[in-house]
Amino acid sequence: MGASSPAQRAVLERAHHGGGWLLSGIICINILILGCALVSGSAFNSVAITAVHRQIFLIVLLVLTMLWMLFYTAVTSRMDQAIVFKDSHAGPVWLRGGFLVFGLLSLLMDIFKIATYAGYLHCDSAVKVAFPVVQAVFLIVQTFFLWTHAKDCVQLHTNFTRCGLTLTLSTNLVVWMAAVTEESLHQTEIPDLYVNVSHKMYRANYGDKCKCSHSACDTFKEAFYYLYPFNIEYSLFASALAYVMWKNVGRLVEDHSHPHVKFRPKEVCFGPLTGILLVVAGLATFIMYEVDILTEDEEKRNLALLIHFVMNIVIVSLMSLATVIGCIVYRLDHREHVSEKNPTRSLDVGLLVGSSIGQFIISYFSIVALLATGARGYLNALNLSWALLTVLQLGLQNYFIIEGLNREPFHVMQEAALHTNAHAYTEMSTVIESNRSTYQLTSTKNKLNWKRRILKEVSAFLLLANIILWIMPAFGARPQFDHPTEIKFYKFTMWAAIVNIGLPFGIFYRMHSVASLFEVYLFS
Amino acid sequence: MGASSPAQRAVLERAHHGGGWLLSGIICINILILGCALVSGSAFNSVAITAVHRQIFLIVLLVLTMLWMLFYTAVTSRMDQAIVFKDSHAGPVWLRGGFLVFGLLSLLMDIFKIATYAGYLHCDSAVKVAFPVVQAVFLIVQTFFLWTHAKDCVQLHTNFTRCGLTLTLSTNLVVWMAAVTEESLHQTEIPDLYVNVSHKMYRANYGDKCKCSHSACDTFKEAFYYLYPFNIEYSLFASALAYVMWKNVGRLVEDHSHPHVKFRPKEVCFGPLTGILLVVAGLATFIMYEVDILTEDEEKRNLALLIHFVMNIVIVSLMSLATVIGCIVYRLDHREHVSEKNPTRSLDVGLLVGSSIGQFIISYFSIVALLATGARGYLNALNLSWALLTVLQLGLQNYFIIEGLNREPFHVMQEAALHTNAHAYTEMSTVIESNRSTYQLTSTKNKLNWKRRILKEVSAFLLLANIILWIMPAFGARPQFDHPTEIKFYKFTMWAAIVNIGLPFGIFYRMHSVASLFEVYLFS
């Protein structure tokens, strides 16, 4: 395999590209759009299509997916020659780790759901209990399946496996759509901005027809709505993993393992130090915010919002500043771009840009609403600055990360300098580059080049800042709903839809950025 | 250039891949999301953001895009070495032809708009006249620009050109969003299902504050709303052309012109004949439908709907049947898949699948609504069958077209048989293939192979059937609004949004299919 030319390999790969990928794509589109129609139908017309219809559809999808997964684990993956190659880039540890954590929290959600709806069994549909039971089993099967097989490049049963993987992908996306819609509807039931009231309202609505048979019902119901965002994240992660596996079906990769790069945290200090300070300060204000925002005292709530906005503005400004410095260093530094094609890298970049759109949408909708209403009052002015700075920060950070990932790692350059430089296409550049590489080779033994040092400091700082920006929304900060301007401007339903679709992507974006920045740190 | 290896070329292309594409992507996302927020803001909150704000934003975008286009035409494209290569696959004649026709109709729309709003100048904002004026100029500049430069692979000013092209892309998409929203809102003003009433309503609404100063106002206003769908199509076409140009910036292609394939219509007869019959029958029922649907007599309208549904079911069933036959022939026929990478081909396939999603969405939403309400009455039953068969037909047709485009054309195989077969990777397959090719070489001189014959008949039939399925919605058939089930189920606003977003994509899909089927016909 090692000696085959790229052209020959392309032909071989093409030969594996039968009708399977086409058929699997068609299946995926059909399930997705049918799911979309069903979910919207049950949201907009609760008379003809109820939650029960939607849940029956989901149960069918979940069972089918599980059957395929069991078949794959028991038959396909056990066959000889089925999995000769593994894609070392696929399913990195952070993704699978996050996947496991969110899976556990989703399992908890399902247990709470089962406990809640079991109390209504005497007067409500049994499907409402059956669905979380099936979903809990599915969570266990899927987490095990993707944990063990995420890196597989399957060579046998390719067409069937492709269809199975798009079934997994579309099932997870339909579950995601259903969860987002349910969450939005649940929030829309809130008559004003107090969460406490909503809970009482909800209980009252439900209670007049059908009473829960055990006393813990309310606690469970309150608890499982807090766990919804984790289930939403879990579905997104599972979709990403299934998509990578789908891309890897029939792929022939050479088994070059990840170049081992030593992580030496002592190399840098200023970036991590500022970053840790920022995380601690962010955590402190976040806890204050979470406590104060639930009080009935309007002044206290406004103060909490003020502190939250100021803290976020400080974080985002510092991040933008750091990223600008990093981008300038890239301009000065003339490392070669990686020319090798790498599907996982392309997917990484695609996911990064795609998930950043969620945060972009929320920020731009805020900007338009605030500008149109004149941004009167200090809270509106702060909110506007936050949104503007976030847009700037997202653009800069995307640029920084993608540039960083696309450059030849320094350690690879060092190795290349020892061999003849095969890639350089003019003599001139070869000479320049090998000179530079040799220089780095000698210098890095003792101390880092100042450019590398700055890049490492910047990535470490951005990494920590992204962690705090991840923690705040992931653990419940929703200034978008605590501050009334956008709600009044767009009406509650629309604003809830925008935030509930955009924010999970935003959270995913921050986690993904942390992982990518870690890679940029290692490669610099 | 001819002698350079693929690897070397990849490096060269990479070298051109500076920060430009990243920056241009970030610009594109920002304009699009800001545009989306503005358009939704003006649709959902007409107090703070009016149509005037949106139009000012659009004028700024249009002027900036025009300035860049003029700069490109006057400076960049005139420079030495700027356009050494042309992509012969980009901007095919059907796309540029449709683009020109839709451009002319959009120009007409703008002229009507100017005439209408000029009559309100004494009491309404001057921006409402300024916007169509600017848009008319923009239409001329852009149509000229894309007509002459669609095939360019620019080698100079690459970063600036990339940003200019994404600016063009996002401007067109924002214009598209604005047009779709305006069209939806206009239709939502209709209090019941009669178009005539809406017009009177609209006039009444506007008339009480501000009267038109000339008498032709109403005629013009009625006329320009009929031309909206063409403007929507025009924006989609322009976006597709700009995207291909953006992909081609800095690309080094060998200037192999399209292999000349002779179009001999006498080769086939059954397919085209049935197709033409279908087109004629479809046109006849379409005209009847358009006349009868506007009458006040409910029975006559139901009859018109009945005939329209039956005709569509017949067309779609015959198409599905023909496609199944075609797919079976593909199974029997073992032509090699094309292994060469071709960005325009990938884009073609992407556009085909992407635009089919529009029709998929409408059909699935219909299916869910009809099934949930029980599909009572013959009209509902027919509508349901139509939707189900459309889903089937779309899936099959996508499969047929993509398979057809991905196979090595027969004439190329004949040439290859004369040389040594460089691509075959085992001796076995070389022998088989050259045998087969030689056989075809001798046989095709006189008569077509039966497999080729069937494929040609099927593609010709599908081509003509797609034409009639294009004509009907493009020239105003909207059974989705003439039949009340879905409107009642999803509420009018939501259903109007689904149809107005989905249908333009559906129309684009039919046109695109016609072009792709023509290619499949030639390659078979």
TrEMBL record, chains A, B:
RNA-binding keyword on record: no
Highest taxon of the lineage: Eukaryota
Subcellular location field: Cell membrane
The UniProt record lists the keyword Mitochondrion: no
GO MF term set: proton channel activity
Membrane-topology descriptor: Multi-pass membrane protein
Keyword tags: Cell membrane, Hydrogen ion transport, Ion channel, Ion transport, Membrane, Transmembrane, Transmembrane helix, Transport
Residues passing through the membrane, by range: 21-44, 56-76, 97-120, 126-147, 223-246, 267-289, 309-330, 351-372, 384-402, 454-472, 492-509
Pfam assignment, any one: Otopetrin
GO CC annotation terms, alphabetical: plasma membrane
Chief site of localization: membrane
Similarity section: Belongs to the otopetrin family.
Protein name listed in UniProt: Otopetrin 2
Organism: Labrus bergylta (ballan wrasse)
High-level lineage: Eukaryota, Metazoa, Chordata, Craniata, Vertebrata
